[in-house]
Predict the 3D structure of the following.
Amino acid sequence: MKIRFLGSHLKLVAISLLLICTSTAPGHKASQADILSNPVLFTLVVPPLFSNGNFGHQLETFGNHLTGMDAAPRGGDLCLLMPDGTIRFLTQEAGFGVGSSEIQAENAIAVRQPNVHWDADKALFSMVIGGPTKAFDQSYRENKWQIYEITNLAEVINGMTPQIVHVENQPEYNNISPIYGSDGQIIFTSDAPLFELAHTYPQFDEYESAPTNSGIFKLNRETGETIHLTHSPSGDFDIQLAKDGRVISTRWEHLKRDQQASNHRAGNTQWQPVNYVDESVDAEIVNAPATVDGKPYADSDGTPYEIFPEAFVHIENGINVEPNRNPNEPLHDFNEFLPWEISENGERHQTMNHVGRHEFGGVYQNGAKIDDPNLIEGFGNHSSNQYRGTVGSDAGIFQIKEDPRPGFEGTFYGAWSREFGRFSSGRIFEFSLPIGANPQDMEITDWTHPDIDNAENDKGHFRNPLMTMDGTMLVSHATQTQLFNQNNPYTFRIAKMVKANSDATDTEHIPGAPLTGNGITREIIFWGDNTTPLSISVQLSETDVVEVVQRDAPTPRPTYQVEDVEMEVLNEEEINVDELRSWMIDNNLALIAIRNATERDEAERQQPFNLRVPGGVESIPADGKVYDISHFQIFQADMIRGYGLRNFIGRRPIATPMHNSEQSPALEFFNLFDSEGPQSSVKIGLDGSIAAFVPATRALTWQTVSPDGESVVRERQWLTFSPGEIRTCEGCHGINEKTHLGNEKPTNKPEALRVLLQEWKNKINGYALGIDDVADQQLRSFPNPFFSQTSIRFTLDKEEEVTLTILSVDGRVIKKLTSGIKPKGIHEISWDGTTDAGSKSDPGIYLITLSTPSKTNHSRVILK
């Protein structure tokens, strides 16, 4: 592939955008024979136009949402391939894109990821419009991927012109991978900032601190409201809705310390990492002391060292860049792409069925403690997947699609790809994980040859597997056998998978002839960093194929029900679960409950499993080192890391001890944080149980900690919880079938949950408020809860000076209602829910505080 410069003596009107292809116009047949049972939509994608263009290109694994000509080269189309081989260019028919004799400028487009409604009458896709309009132009990069809809797809199949509209009320950011929810709402990934904190945009990933999407969102088309379902520090990709109502995505977990900070400290780059004191727009930069309590705390620039997870690097260029490293812990560099699930309302966020690297393979991890021979690097023998040893690290499964045929519910297909240089292509895997299936029993069928996972092979590379209703698998196949380079660009062609040989026991398949005949080649003309336009002739990739056929609508998953064991605790404490949920929703909180943190899944041997609560329960299945665990420390992903190199535009999430925030201001007041333990930690009960309120709609992770403050078992992923969600985990980090002791999942009533709920009940009813005295019958409000106005009644035994104030649950003054000398007797004052500034207060719980020289009374009131 060679780029040439167009001479300045050519007039722009004479520059042609050539369409050299088997389909020179809509309606041309690529094949004379019927090739499909149903029509399919697919996208035409221009390959990278520059030598380094594979990183971040729209077909790559991550960072694929950017809109520059390197990442999203203009010149593609959304296409329809009919059963008889006819190809139609739908975006072109609808008036989008650049026609002949035009440069890829104002009206140029790139398209991606169509999704067909199960009624087959409409379809979503993402499109970015506009390219560079002159030499050195960079302004077009501000154009965003947006969601569009073909509203008359059924008529288009019958020959009508497509009606393509921009979906209203979507965020004004890069919105990709759109799908229809079971209720007609639109679910998609986006790089919209967390909690609409625009000054943190873009979010940088945990690897290269490169822009990434921030998770999965849902747009209610009726109300125009957008909800952030998952906060992903490094990105969610390729989402789809399974028949059982699970939203499936490929989620990138690169949970590690900031390597850019380490590089800067070693003198390799000038990233100039900084921490802000909080996420506010005017937050100051932290300038911390070098040591705290005699331990390394911050570098010479005053930027604090990270404390979670383990150190990524220790010595670099002879410099100790992580002086707070525990010498008994190996260096940590985690990297995996696994299938994740979440309900459409944001609940139940986890890897599919709690599947992990022990079942899929790929990423090996050193034992977490160097001095413990019980901890090993390998995966053990608790998986039925015979292929897990054939896949490499830095890899994962992408473009996951469920088998649409009746009787194949829970069967999925995906492309197993390495991280770089393959455009998220590689082998094709089939696996079965219906709800409730044990991931240890999951078997993978390799539809392709295992050699494809190597750097070079003679099979090519596959992506976008699609099982059709008639049992035919379609794929996008590239014949290139080496890693990407500019002289050997990947070009994907749609083909049917056919058996490689007649052996019935051999599952290997190879691609048949491309369904589009000779394919589609175009000359792409565009402005770059030259005084004249650039021109390049390329064959376009055919990707993102989806079948246009009616299907049964997915079954919505019911709201997550509290497990029976935890429900017993709520009932015994006379707590109404609906009232608890409502309170948590008002305060943007969720609740996690762990039954016995000393019990661990039998397959996990990279982290300690000989665990004991001092004076309490223990699980010691092996001889050797025993670990005492006394506290459970929770971290939240705070958008507080910035870089001087980037002029402080954009933020990277950093694992920060859980704390109050503007979005969850009641967190610390209602939790039982132990001041004698690590920051943001709760005590582990003698029965091994743990309970805590946690921020909702924000990525979280955690660890168990020994009495002397040393980390013992760490969570290796980030998880998100929905407001009001009450999540149970039987053991520490989940148990698939058996524990190391051979036990079933714990069923003890978690006493830590009981204690937390008792404390919550006391506080919510005005007791143990920690602000002098408790409430009594002398201070009440009605109605309570209220919507527009409540009357507050208080009684004075004598004439005295009174101050009546409304406080937030974390002690902030919301409004001073009255102040001055009041006579003996009953008094009544109303509050309309406004602040001192006159604005309406957010729904939630507030404290009414009556202060006199003799005492202070409190009561609570709920604003709905």
